[in-house]
Amino acid sequence: MAEPVISIRGLTAHAGETLLLHDVSLSVSAGEIVTLSGPSGVGKTTVAMAAAGLERPGVTVRAEVVAPGKVGYLPQQAAETLNPARRVGHALGELVGLDAGRLSREQRRERVAEVLRLVAFEAADGLLRRYPFEFSGGQRTRLALAQVLATRPGALVLDEPTTGLDAVSKAGLLRQLRALADAGAALLVVTHDPDVAATRTLRLRDGTLTDEPPPTAMPLPRTVERGARVAELRGVSVHYGRMEVLRDVDLSLFAGETVGVVGPSGAGKTSLARCLAGLAPVRGEVFADGKPVPLLRKRTARQTAYVQYVWQEAASSFDPRRTVLDQVAATAVRLRGLRPADATGEAGEVLIGLGLTEAQAGRRPAGLSGGQLQRAALARALLAEPRVLICDEVTTGLDAELAVRVLDCLDAYQRRTSAALLLISHDTRALAARADRIVAVEHGRVVDSG
């Protein structure tokens, strides 16, 4: 085997007094794609950050890490690396210039276009002049990867890079990762995605590396019946500046049903969810419980509790200064009027049901993985006891066992409350097993429902 481009020896990690990882060693050579999987919270991101020479807040790491060349790192919450105040073209142009030195304007544009093609974008002028908020979650992940590739790293450490991508975009990205490896790059990829073709596959469990294959589990059959209409969009259109992202959309949700939403990245799936949650100004009408509802900032506590939304980039929704348990419990205090002690007890039970330990719930957000924070965000929404629960890629980045656990938890909540669930996902297999009907969104319109 060739000389390793990334080498980690004897990695041990602690979060406070808790041992996360013990004596972990791995290497990645030029031309390799090494995948790293394991349950949420087991320490995969800690290993990835150590490989990239980065420190994780709240985690103490001891290891011998050798990576003599340039290492590019794409975090799990990749979209947060984008500057919301800068146009895409300007940000990429600056990064290209840092790598290649003095370039003419035309040379810089050609290099930006080349980088965008690597992540399945065409560098049209309209795209280059847009801001990050004008893209879908999956598109922002690809743009974040473009920023990493702009500096031409010899090694890449990618944490769940296929998160939120539709099948076409994912296939294009995986081809490009293979091409990068064929060109001599070394890739360490944290992923639960079986479509990532690996040279070698490693699995973390109980703080150590093993060759144990990931568990597989089949979803339980659904038995919930549909009831009365609980939410509705009538003739809804959404514009961001001059760009139309939704056009004349009609959608009804009924008590007790699960509706799956599918479509390419950028089709308008997340915008549809934001309309129901009151996070996007609309033309048209939004109804909940049979009554028109305003934007979220103008909704009453009852209206806010009625529709809850768990979005893709959940980590950014937590206050870094407070424990996760306190923030989850605060929802029941604010929206349901529970006493703090009762809310804390209920929050702890829901978090444990979603696979988080008492110790993990007592940490601040920086002490949890992206998958753990995603489940904490779901627990926070459940504490509101919503009649409509919207989940945008809620199982993305989870191993198969945890994904089934989360979906089973949603099923149990629905059986108990007859809530309507709107599940946005690129996992068509999971939607086929769980959803009562599927809504397809393309180019800002609902093109199929059944």
From TrEMBL:
Q: Which is one Pfam family of this protein?
A: ABC_tran
List the keywords (alphabetical).
Answer: ATP-binding, Nucleotide-binding
Molecular functions per Gene Ontology? ATP binding
Keyword Transmembrane helix in annotation:
no
Q: State which residue ranges cross the membrane.
A: none
- InterPro entries attached here? AAA+_ATPase, ABC_transporter-like_ATP-bd, ABC_transporter-like_CS, ABC_transpr_LolD-like, P-loop_NTPase
Report the leader peptide range: none
Domain (ABC transporter): give its ranges.
6-231, 231-450
What is the protein named?
A: ABC transporter ATP-binding protein
The organism encoding this protein is: Amycolatopsis rubida
